[in-house]
Design brief:
Elements lengths: L2 H18 L12 H16 L6 H17 L13 H24 L13 E15 L9 E12 L7 E3 L4 H12 L13 E6 L10 E7 L10 H9 L3 E6 L6 E3 L5 E3 L8 H16 L5 H14 L1 H25 L9 E11 L1 H12 L5 E5 L18 E5 L5 H12 L6 E5 L10 H4 L2 H4 L8 H20 L6 H6 L4 E3 L3
Parallel strand pairs: 1-4, 5-6, 5-9, 9-10, 10-11, 11-12
Antiparallel strand pairs: 1-2, 2-6, 3-4, 7-8, 12-13
Helix pairs in contact: 1-2, 1-3, 1-4, 2-3, 3-4, 6-14, 7-8, 8-11, 9-10
Length: about 500
């Protein structure tokens, strides 16, 4: 709960204490509490913003204000005007239920301020778009449509004491509606994210402490947003990296362009081969109990990873977006924008989560300008299986908690495609769905079994420790002591020597 929400909660709670604790019933000071709650309510809504999770508390404040008005002339401010003992107790019980609801709803769907980045730099953020005129848009029938996609960037910035931080979501109403429609929920479910602020200053000047900074390119997960790992991006930017996150048009849940255009996601590209993917997965689990033949299981999983033509096509489009962005970064670096000369394009890492992780390693196959790749719990779809040679770049694999043999087989197939993985680490308590910001904003889903029990702040600390060590080692052609990092976190397990 935010400061004014906590204050309002306290003002509603204290009159109940007046009722329950005889010693303080006669203190006339507590008469003011009946009115203070109703005064603070509009102040809280004005300064911190309304959210539906607080509605029970707003109702309780109004109810107590009404009682306070009736009580104003009574000598004992702790006595309720209600004479009937049963009704009086029922009223108190109702207030208690309301207070409990007022605590639980905000706790399960909190307006959480993102954790402060631990690096030395202030963080800036900006948005722009890429229009690759050499590529025809794959999702439209108009032959004149070229490939456009939005990019969000986080970067080391000069400190600005009076600057306001950027919101977590640009055009939050549009974004919240897109997520709500996809989840089959009312728009109210994501409305608290419209109140979330980041630690990034919009359009701040890039830091002048260094001549230039290494580059990290991020590809989000399936049907996700470029901002969905903002906590990690801010941490990397505060440590001296410029992070470009791609919003893959049509394959992202919504794409917001600087000119105001909003293009919703479109999954109509999923071909008839997609059900075959699911059928093979079902076949694997049906046969799982009937055979111990590892060779059979491995061949079946290879089919799962390759049979779906639509998935392979999607990864290919994502990879082409990465290549287009790299092409554009060279132009930006030679241009007149604030990033001119600030990009160290001899140091490029591509990173992603889930389908974005597959995209990252796929990009390593097709573009030798990339020096390193990071796959956060993604399966090896795409050109990795078709590459004649193993991926030569150093690669960091961050895996969720290993829960079945299938995951182990997939991991083994992926390792076969890597020349020399720098680090493979598994994090206990982290499931696949833990590796983005939403567990920070939706603790309720933990209790519903959607993601693992690891604390989001703790996962961020583990994840960023490995990523930062990997980036420094890859870009400086040195080694990293991953064993020392692993020793510092009991949830981490190093899977390669």
């Amino acid at each position: 709960m935010r400061f004014l929400e906590v204050l309002l909660f306290s003002l509603v709670l204290l009159p109940l204490l007046v009722r329950l604790i005889p010693r303080i019933r006669g203190l006339h000071f507590f008469r003011l509490l009946w009115f203070a709650a109703i005064i603070i309510t509009p102040v809280q809504i004005l300064l911190e913003g309304f959210r539906w999770q607080m509605t029970p508390l707003y109702f309780a404040a109004l109810l107590l204000a009404c009682v306070g008005i009736l009580q104003f002339r009574k000598e004992n401010p702790g006595d309720f005007i209600i004479r009937n003992k049963f009704v009086r107790h029922l009223f108190a019980a109702l207030l208690i239920v309301i207070l409990v609801a007022s605590f639980i709803f905000p706790a399960l769907l909190p307006v959480a301020r993102l954790p402060l980045p631990k690096g030395a730099y202030t963080v800036g953020t900006a948005s722009f778009e890429i229009n690759d005129i050499m590529r025809q848009e794959w999702m439209t029938s108009n032959p004149d449509d070229t490939r456009r996609f939005a990019v969000r960037v986080w970067y080391p910035a000069d400190a600005v004491e009076t600057a306001h931080t950027a919101p977590y979501w640009d055009r939050a109403g549009i974004t919240g509606k897109a997520y709500s429609q996809n989840a089959g929920m009312g728009s109210f479910w994501y409305s608290h994210l419209t109140l979330v602020a980041t630690n990034s200053i919009a359009n701040a000047d890039i830091s002048t402490i260094r001549d230039n900074y290494p580059v990290v390119i991020y590809s989000p997960s399936f049907y996700s947003l470029s901002t969905d790992n903002t906590m990690l991006f801010e941490e990397l930017a505060s440590n001296g990296y410029i992070v470009f996150s791609i919003n893959h048009t049509y394959e992202s849940i919504v794409s917001l362009f600087p000119d105001g255009e909003a293009i919703p996601g479109d999954l109509s590209y999923l071909s008839d081969s997609y059900p075959a993917h699911a059928d093979l997965e079902e076949q694997y689990y049906l046969d799982y109990a009937d055979t111990d033949l590892l060779e059979y299981k491995t061949s079946l999983i290879q089919k799962i990873l390759t049979v779906d033509e639509s998935t392979t096509a999607m990864i290919r489009i994502r990879t082409q977006d990465v290549v287009s962005l790299i092409d554009e970064l060279f132009l930006i670096n030679d241009g007149i924008t604030q990033f001119a000369g600030k990009l160290d394009l001899t140091k490029i890492c591509v990173m992603g989560w889930s389908f974005g992780g597959a995209t990252a390693l796929d990009a390593c196959v097709v573009d030798n300008r990339i020096q390193a790749g990071i796959n956060i719990d993604g399966w090896p779809y795409g050109e990795q299986f078709n590459a004649a040679e193993a991926i030569r770049q150093p690669v960091l694999l961050i895996r969720s908690e290993r829960r079945d043999e299938m995951e182990d087989i997939v991991s083994g197939l992926q390792l076969e495609k890597l020349d020399n993985p720098a680090c493979v680490v598994s994090i206990d308590g982290a499931w696949h769905e833990n590796f983005w910001d939403f567990p920070y904003f939706f603790p309720i889903y933990h209790y519903l079994g959607y993601w693992g029990p690891i604390n989001p702040n703790h996962l961020l600390a583990i994840e960023s420790a490995y990523i930062l060590a990997f980036l420094r080692a890859s870009f400086n052609d040195s080694s990293a002591d991953y064993a020392a990092i692993t020793a510092g976190y009991q949830e981490a397990e190093l899977l390669n020597p």
